[in-house]
Design goal:
- The chain is of the alpha/beta class.
- The chain folds into 2 domains: about 220 residues, NAD(P)-binding Rossmann-like Domain (Rossmann fold, 3-Layer(aba) Sandwich), CATH 3.40.50; about 80 residues, 2-Layer Sandwich (TATA-Binding Protein).
- Helix content is about 35%, strand content about 20%.
- Helix 3 links the parallel strand 1 and strand 2.
- Helix 3 packs across helix 10.
- The longest helix has 20 residues.
- It is globular.
Length: about 325
Amino acid sequence: MRSDRYSRQSIFAGLGAEGQSKLSRARVAVIGLGALGTVIANNLCRAGIGFLRLVDRDYVEISNLQRQMLFTEEDAKEELPKAVAAGRHLAAVNSETVVEPLVADVNSGSVMALLSDVDLVLDGTDNFETRYLINEACHKLSLPWIYGGALAAEGGTMNILPEGPCFRCLSPEVPAPGSYQTCGTAGVLNMITGAVASLESAEAVKILTGSPAVSRAYFSLDIWRNTARYVEIARDPDCPVCARGEYEFLFRRQGSYSAALCGREAVQIAPPAGTKVDLPRLAEGLRQIGAVRLSPYMLSFTGGVAFNLFPDGRAIIKNARDEAAALSVYAEYIGL
């Protein structure tokens, strides 16, 4: 470790040389490389985390650049997978941090392998179901994780520690689809995503270095109304996860599924876990009916319909009016 790279950080009394050394040995997974995840990954890479696993299923679009801090117009033009683009930029920032970008969907078939060899998980996702899944996987692994969310000008974060309370204590029931606003309906300021992500990053450093200052409360803030508050969350003695050890989302059978993507006229279609696609071979056929762009990470097709297809068989169907229409496109053009 170069002594000058972290000199302004390691002289901080709460960290010191010993704390900096702990960070250099730490292994962290960041799930979701959007508005929160890009700031978190950037902060932790520059802070000297030894290993960063960056997991995201999506690709860069021009509308991301307002708040997703690791991406450029060129990334959007090339439609690079977010994990790949983020990994490239961070590799140029700090060669001492091992960055592992994974273009992958976090689901019941993949989550344990993604999290089983790290010390801490940070939430950069945009949906509740993935958070419930992460919560169950981390509880089963006795692994700490940090929840974060932001919308419009409001946001909040909470450390979910193995001893509880867990995320299910904070949010007992999965909100019904359409019952809450999203970034596509309420918008989001990059200032609130940056603030929440920085709070998550700071708590990560505390947890990884064993600081006594680790927060045990839910912290929320509204940067438009200038309010902030801490809320103590009690462990639910009847919580299905941290009290009864029931894993509804983790043990859910993983088959084909579809999901609308937040704030976009796009739907992700995912085949069963373990699917593999020969992208070059499929590209040959698709070139007969439309425009194809092929990279090691993704096949992009435009020709009456538009979609991006990944090697694991996942596809993001663009301009899809609903999930049924997206499934029809998948069946007609990909047919796995």
